[in-house]
Amino acid sequence: MGRYSHGQNIDNRLLFLENIGLQVKKDLFTIDHLKSLWSILVKKAATDVEKNAFLKWVMKSKTTASGKKNPILSDTLLRNFFNNVLCDPSQMENFKIVTPEIFQCFEKCFEIINEREDNIEVNKNGISVVRFQPLVGYEVLWEMLLNCPNEAVLKNVKNLLANIHLKIASSAAEDKFQIWQSFIQRWVESFQIASQQLEGELMVHVISLLNLFVDLLDGRKYINRDGPATEKVDILVVDKKGKKFIKEIGLMCVDDKTRRRVAVPANGTLFLLRKKIAEEFGLQTYEFDMYTTQNYKISHEIEDMHSINSISKRIILDISMLKSHSEQ
Question: Is residue 74 part of a domain?
Answer without folding.
Answer: yes
